[in-house]
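Worked problem 6 (solution included).
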Amino acid sequence: MNPELENLVDIALIDGYISDKEKEVLRRKAANLGFDLDELEMILEGKLYKQNQSRRPKVNKCPSCGEIVNGFSKVCPSCKYILTTKIVGRDDEPDNEDEEDQDEEDSVPERKNETLEDSFYELELSVHELKQTPKLPSTKVTNAVFKIVLTAGLYIIYKKLFKKENVFDRYQDVNARYLSLTEMQSQSLLRKYGEDERIKSGINRILADRDAVMNKRRSLDRVFGITLLAVLLIIIYIFPKNYTRAERPTKPETALEKTERLIGEKKISEARGAAVTIDDIATKDALLLTISDMAVDSLVSAGNYDEALRIVNLRSTDGTTLEEERRSKLDKIITLQVTELIEKKEYKAAREKAEYASTLVSYNLMDKIKLAQKLNK
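Solution. The predicted structure is:
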């Protein structure tokens, strides 16, 4: 065929379709070049047929049972055989039509000596081997604990931020090895069998079992490591202080210190006994007065006014100031007692107690009693 005419034919067939106008142009060109028109028709039909054949989608067919395998799946849905396709490389490109026919026969999916069950078995076997890994010694976790203590916690930062590893994980190397192996096997399964949902579900189930084993081991190591770290910190930071405190000789307590301690603990009788042993008279008298006030307040709170008055009356009255303090204390106690008697409507007893108060306080109490009697009538 004339090169110019052949070029026009290729241009006309570039879209896989030849229109009437394109065919008319080719006829005129062939007539001008003296090319046979019937031969031109035959060439056009042949090229169109060949072009359409090359664009037809390929359908995989199982060589074992003849089942059609749709999509990208490489496993037969009926017999579960793995399908594979021989790829012809550039160096193996056929030179003639006979070799092309032979390559077409070779490219038909052929049966491999492996089934779906075999592939899943390999993946499950890897997970089973992971489960059966012998228990490793806790040396790695123990060493991590000591490193944390010795570095004041900096080892944790090093492992987490820089190494990106778990602080307590004795199975780290084992887990990493089986993680890589099972990921490779699962990806191989997906490549071989496509996106079949049942296969993906089975793979996810096995990988979830693998992850559960790894997470359980990490959790146990974490608990063991944290517990050991806590015990070690207690031994280092708490026991020595308690031991030192227990071994430290106690200084004998003086009479003054003992009295002040007992006063703080509100142990009146014991404080009074300790106070009388104090050598300094002024200090002793001051503390005894404080103890006496505590006793009086305790009796007043209990409603034992007569005993409280008796204790106050027994106080030493050396000096004007002490006498005024004693008189003021008596007035307060009598006022409380009279008020309580008025509330009980025991007016006669209230008047008798009011007479023991100082003059001004006594007058006020009497007026209070009279007013209460009037209001009560």
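Discussion: The two ends are 147 Å apart (CA to CA).
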